[in-house]
Write a structure and sequence with these properties.
- Chain A: Keywords: Cell membrane, Membrane, Transmembrane, Transmembrane helix.
- Chain A: The chain crosses the membrane at residues 77-101, 113-130, 158-175.
- Chain A: InterPro entries: CHR_Transporter, Chromate_transpt.
- The complex is a heterodimer of chains A (176) and B (189).
- Chain A is mainly α.
- Chain A has helices at residues 2-16, 21-35, 41-53, 58-94, 98-103, 105-137, 139-155, 160-174.
- Chain A is globular and about 55 Å long.
- Chain A starts with a helix and ends with a helix.
- Chain B has helices spanning 3-16, 21-35, 41-53, 58-100, 105-137, 139-155, 160-180.
- Chain B has a domain at 3-114.
- Chain B starts with a helix and ends in a 9-residue tail after the last helix.
- Chain B is mostly helical.
- Helices cover 83% and strands 0% of the residues of chain B.
- In chain B, helix 1 (3-16) crosses helix 4 (58-100) and helix 5 packs across helix 6 (139-155).
- The chains are: A mainly alpha (176), B mainly alpha (189).
- The interface between A and B is large, with 110 and 99 residues.
Chain lengths: 176, 189
């Protein structure tokens, strides 16, 4: 039963995740945190942080870790299969029709139309993380970390892994 | 053309691609087009176009097709595994270690500090989707769709999956009517 749920969650979130990794993150959260309550929002945030600090595709890292957490090694493998297999098969079979897809007005419109939903989902999730941090660490630390990381990543283009690393050091010194 | 090359190419592009799948694309291109010459630049562009038209993570879709092209089903499997397994194992090991030391005050502080950073990263991603919608859909449509999404998701508590399906259906209907109307010119770019 749990294996079936793990498979279903990662199958459906990746099939609906238009726009690659980032668009699947809020869908994962809706299933894993809100619906099945496998992880708390805080735990989900930890997974997201560490996954972001490591290289490679984000969706596969998150799904296999959550699968592992919920249902052990087999859960991890199932989550990975559910994430990767459907679109991998689709790639191989649909490649013959690539010219159809490339110029299709349907595909273009579809990709555009999903963007507002994904934007709202990501911004709401961002808000939830900031409020949770505000409540647990106070507004001064939250503001320093949020604005500091924004400045580092967007203004002076520091590597995201270094930004996560820097926040871990900050936490070890000021929040312990 | 061998399994070993596929394995090396996709392990390398998986381990060096920071910032999720999209950042791995130029690295995959380097392995596939320049280094191992599995395909031409044009073919790579077509694989990427198809990958972008389908949902789900981009890097594994690229690995699947390129692996399949080079060495069939087994090649696809090896390319995907090489792309994802090293970082999956690293994440599980890292988080398990972190949680094993979860009682330590220092670890707790470190985990607490990550929250605002993740909030900010998500906000930036959200802003990028906002901007893309702005450019692609125009200001008015984008605002209307944002407001509808927000009200449906947050006030009516409609499941995000349902909202995405609704917007996909909307896109299909809209395209159907705009491409079948005799007075509007179908734009093919």
């Amino acid at each position: 039963m749990i294996y079936l749920q793990v498979f279903w969650v990662f199958f459906i979130t990746n099939i609906l995740g238009y726009g690659g990794g980032p668009s699947t993150i809020p869908l994962f959260q809706a299933e894993v945190v809100e619906h099945y309550k496998w992880l708390t929002l805080k735990e989900f945030g930890d997974v997201l942080a560490i996954a972001n600090a490591l290289p490679g595709p984000i969706a596969t890292k998150m799904s296999s870790y959550i699968g592992y957490q919920v249902a052990g090694p087999l859960g991890s493998i199932l989550a990975l299969i559910a994430t990767v297999l459907p679109t991998a098969v689709a790639m191989v079979f649909l490649f013959k029709f690539v010219t159809l897809f490339k110029s299709s007005p349907y595909v273009k419109e579809l990709t555009k139309s999903v963007q507002p939903v994904v934007a709202v989902l990501l911004l709401v999730l961002a808000y939830q993380f900031l409020v949770a941090a505000w409540e647990s660490s106070g507004w001064i630390h939250t503001a320093i970390l949020a604005l500091g990381s924004f400045w580092a990543m967007e203004r002076i283009k520091v590597h995201p892994a270094l930004v996560i690393g820097g926040s871990l050091v900050y936490g070890a010194v000021f929040l312990s | 053309m061998s399994y070993k090359e596929l394995f090396i190419g996709f392990t390398r592009s998986g381990l060096l691609g920071y910032g999720g799948g999209p950042s791995a694309i130029p690295l995959i291109r380097y392995e596939a087009v320049e280094r191992f010459k599995w395909m031409t630049d044009d073919e790579f562009a077509e694989v990427l176009a198809l990958g972008n038209a389908l949902p789900g993570p981009i890097a594994t879709k690229m690995a699947a097709y390129i692996g399949y092209k080079v060495k069939g089903k087994m090649g696809a499997l090896i390319a995907i595994l090489a792309q994802v397994v090293p970082t999956v194992v690293a994440l599980i090991a890292l988080l398990s270690t972190l949680y094993a030391m979860g009682e330590s005050r220092i670890i707790k502080g470190m985990i607490a500090a990550v929250g605002p950073v993740i909030g900010m990263m998500l906000a930036v991603m959200g802003y990028q989707f906002l901007k893309k919608g702005w450019i692609g859909l125009g200001m008015t449509t984008n605002i209307v769709m944002l407001v509808i999404s927000f009200l449906a998701l947050e006030l009516l508590d409609i499941h995000p999956a349902i909202m995405i399906v609704v917007f996909i259906a909307y896109a299909f209907i809209k395209t159907y009517f705009s491409t079948n109307k005799p007075d509007t010119k179908r734009s093919v770019s």
